[in-house]
Design brief:
The complex is a heterodimer of chains A (424) and B (358).
Chain A lengths: L1 H12 L2 H26 L8 E7 L3 H15 L3 H14 L1 H10 L7 E4 L4 H9 L5 E5 L3 H10 L6 E7 L5 H26 L16 E4 L8 H30 L2 H7 L4 H31 L7 H32 L3 H18 L10 H7 L3 H13 L8 H21 L7
Parallel strand pairs in A: 1-2, 1-3
Antiparallel strand pairs in A: 3-4
Chain B lengths: L1 H13 L2 H18 L7 E6 L5 H11 L5 E5 L2 H9 L5 E5 L4 E5 L6 H24 L11 E7 L9 H32 L1 H7 L4 H29 L9 H25 L3 H19 L11 H7 L3 H15 L7 H24 L2
Parallel strand pairs in B: 1-2, 1-3
Antiparallel strand pairs in B: 3-4
The chains are: A alpha/beta (424), B alpha/beta (358).
Chain lengths: 424, 358
């Protein structure tokens, strides 16, 4: 038995392509996914400030003069006019917008450039020099004042010119402007209703949108997510590696020679289970440790964390052993290795996808998510993520039982399928 | 040449599972990720401990009063369970005066959701304050200023960028798989001796190559064609009307993919090793090149650079331009010629490496 396992370990570890797919590929993918999606997918935006050109064609002084003339034409008393003009300055939307755009909170997000005129800005937009052009058009203040004081239907709009409105940077700038205009419209509508009397507000800026973490631990980070995702995905490949190795042994008559020595067929099958379990454990250990060394994935965790991690990994490796035995049995019984090819070529990708290895499950419908938790890798991924979020072992026991059941099922099937007679 | 070409089709007819399963996977993946309709909405689960059921419904109605978001009413127990099982990554708790997020995993969407929720809350709370302080006045929300959005590239088709992206990205990813896995046959033939027998037959070597490569080329184009027809006819994805540029791009991409296959076979000779290299190469290329998510999302400079060396990047960009922005062949000259250049380069090196052996 021990010799059989040692043989598997030696043949697989000396096969460069197997090592490549079991260890190198997941690391490569963890790096790509973690770096590429880490900042965006997981909320912590660390984008370069977006270069935005701001063009002000609006002239408040001129607009106020213009507005004054209109008021005089309306025949309002001089004192009222002066009062209106004085307060008009304070509600000027152009000035408010400028203040907002210059505010320090936005300086990380946008890089405001004001030395362009319209034509230059559009040229700069075409050459990627800026990604958005905000234009405050002529008479913008004037139109707003007319609408506010004289309740006229006017059209005051801020013009936003972008390269392509699905572009993420464009969406961000549009978001800033929309939230500005919504707020401005609300305040002005209220001022209109109360006729300029101030409204006391108890709403502070901060008490909104507090983020509470669900569990005691920290939320799952991108590198943690993808380390787990890739680890559970590529552990599946261990199963097909072991089973196609078994088929090779049958083809090259190693299997027949083993049987000649009097090894029991079921022992052979069992050795495949153990080999797969051991290989999976080694693989997972290497992946978790390397990822922690390179990307600080699981630093700041205690011994308890690693112990639970080991328990989950062990249960998971059992199901991989079950898969390996199942496919070995099929390959040897039917003398065809198509099952390993099918598994490594298609099934793994589908399992990985359903299980959430490739993209967070929140992108799918609830049915898909439920389905994902019924794949061995998906169920284990859920357990790993629960562990990272700081849950106790008892919370994810159901997932562990589920996977254990699958392991038992596959091993039973393998024993049933594996040929008992005419082994050569 | 045609005998080799036909032989390959015959082989395909006997073992069509691989190609069929990749076509099925393309369609399944697009369905899973994109759904059948173009527009994507963000679904948010909400719950409340303070509000009564009808009050919560009212809030949710207000929150739903916009496109792009869908707020669902649920309760704390269900939500905690879903968070625990990683079925959702966050949920929204609504109170009288504020709201909280319950977060299991950090999510890309929280920022967008928060922007919307904050606006709705602020508006409602401000209005209720006015109603309290000035009970006799009613507020009419009026749009004093508006935003006028214009873009250089005007989208012509009704399908949105996300939909077009998923369709083109997934199709190219799986066609890469089909072609590369299919071309593994060449390595197998070399191993089993079929290749040697072909060489000593009266066929010219160039004919053997052309026959083989032509087969994989037409297979690739056929697979993309089938997928696109399914998306167009049954799933209501809109492909615009620049069919010529779509076809040219597809052909250029498939050519580059076949050439990539030659390069891989040239470098890695054993079929077993190819079996493991192919998923690495195709998945890595697809991820870097932006088949899974738009390259715009990537902020890492090095990865942005790497994207530029993958054929997938040029393929998806050109297809999106053709589908969404009506780009003609002339507009797509740059990505198409880069694809062709890559093809020629890969093919040259690949053939060289293949011929160098024994």
């Amino acid at each position: 038995m021990w010799n059989l396992i040692r043989k598997d370990f030696l043949t697989i570890s000396r096969d460069r392509s197997e090592v490549l797919i079991l260890l190198v590929m997941p690391m490569v993918l963890i790096a790509i996914l973690g770096f590429a999606l880490g900042s965006i997918m997981f909320g912590t935006v660390d984008m370069d400030p977006i270069p935005v050109a701001l063009i002000i064609e609006n002239d408040l002084e001129q607009d106020l003069d213009h507005f004054r003339e209109d008021l005089i034409a309306e025949g309002l008393p001089e004192q009222a006019i002066e009062q209106m003009i004085a307060s008009a300055g304070t509600i000027d939307p152009a000035a408010s917008l400028e203040t907002v755009l210059h505010s320090p909170e936005l300086s990380d997000m946008i890089d405001l450039k004001e030395n362009y005129d319209q034509e230059q800005a559009e040229a700069a937009l075409a050459t990627d020099e800026v990604l958005a052009v905000i234009t405050i058009p002529e008479q913008f203040s004037y139109q707003t004042l007319l609408a506010f004081y004289l309740a006229e239907e006017t059209d005051a709009s801020i013009e936003l010119f972008v390269q392509d409105h699905e572009q993420i940077q464009a969406t961000i700038v549009e978001g800033i402007l929309t939230s500005f205009s919504d707020q401005y419209n609300l305040e002005l509508s209220m001022a209109f209703a109360t006729e300029g009397e101030g409204v006391e507000t108890s709403i502070s800026e901060e008490n909104f949108g507090v983020i509470n973490h669900f569990s005691s631990g920290k939320p799952v980070s991108a590198f943690q997510y993808y380390t787990i995702g890739m680890a559970v995905m590529f552990a599946l490949y261990v199963a097909s590696t072991v089973s196609s190795n078994a088929f090779k042994e049958k083809e090259s008559h190693v299997f027949a020679r083993l049987m000649m020595t009097g090894a029991r067929p079921l022992n052979y099958l069992l050795s495949k289970v153990v080999s797969a379990v051991v290989l999976t454990l080694i693989q997972l250990t290497i992946l978790f440790v390397t990822s922690t060394l390179f990307f600080q994935t699981f630093t700041d965790t205690g011994i308890e964390f690693w112990a639970s991690l080991a328990i989950i990994s062990f249960v998971f490796s059992l199901v991989i052993g079950g898969f390996a035995a199942f496919m070995t049995a099929i390959a040897i019984q039917f003398n065809n290795d198509a099952i390993s090819g099918f598994f490594s070529g298609g099934a793994v990708v589908i399992f990985a996808f359903l299980g959430g290895s490739l993209s967070p499950v929140e992108y799918f419908s609830p049915l898909m998510r439920e389905l994902g938790n019924w794949t061995p890798n998906g169920a284990m991924m859920t357990a790993y993520l629960q562990l990272i979020q700081g849950f106790n072992l008892t919370e994810f026991l159901p997932m562990l039982y589920r996977v254990l059941l699958m392991a038992v099922l596959f091993i039973t099937l393998a024993v049933a399928i594996f040929p008992k007679r005419r082994l050569m | 040449m045609w005998s080799v070409f036909n032989l390959q089709w015959l082989r395909l007819k006997r073992e069509p599972i691989l190609v069929l399963s990749f076509i099925a996977m393309t369609i399944l993946f697009v369905l899973f990720i994109g759904g059948t309709q173009g527009e994507q909405t963000i679904t948010v689960q909400t719950f409340s401990d303070q509000l009564t059921e009808s009050e919560l419904d009212e809030w949710v109605d207000d929150l739903n009063n916009t496109s792009g978001f869908e707020f669902h009413v649920s309760d704390r127990e269900t939500i905690e369970n879903q968070l625990k099982l990683s079925q959702i990554s966050y949920a929204l708790e609504l109170n009288y005066l504020d709201y909280h997020y319950l977060v299991g995993q950090d999510s890309f969407f929280i920022n967008a959701v928060n922007q919307h929720v904050e606006q709705v809350y602020r508006t409602k709370l401000r209005i209720s304050e006015i109603a309290e302080q000035f009970p006799d006045r009613s507020i009419e929300l009026k749009d004093y200023i508006t935003i006028e959005l214009e873009s250089l590239a005007n989208s012509v088709s009704s399908s949105d960028e996300g939909g077009a992206h998923i369709v083109s990205g997934m199709t190219l990813y799986f066609v890469l798989y089909t072609i590369l896995f299919g071309m593994m046959n060449i390595a197998v033939e070399k191993r089993t001796g079929t290749w040697d027998r072909l060489i000593i037959s009266p066929l010219k070597k160039s004919n053997i190559y052309v026959g083989q490569l032509l087969h994989y080329f037409s297979l690739g184009v056929l697979q993309i064609g089938i997928c696109f027809i399914v998306f167009d006819q049954f799933l209501n994805y809109n492909f615009g009307d620049q069919y010529l540029s779509i076809i040219v791009t597809v052909m250029a991409f498939v050519f580059a993919a076949v050439a990539l296959g030659m390069l891989l076979i040239g470098i890695v000779r054993s079929p077993q090793q190819l079996q493991s290299i192919i998923p690495i190469v195709s998945t890595a290329f697809a991820m870097l090149g932006g088949a899974f998510w738009p390259v715009d999302l990537v902020t890492n400079k090095f990865l942005q650079l790497l994207a530029k060396i993958t054929p997938v990047y040029y393929g998806t960009e050109a297809l999106k331009d053709a589908m969404l922005y009506n780009a003609g062949v002339g507009d797509l000259l740059q990505p198409i010629s880069i694809l062709l250049l890559m093809g020629v380069l890969f093919m040259g090196i690949g053939l060289n490496l293949m011929e160098r052996t024994k």
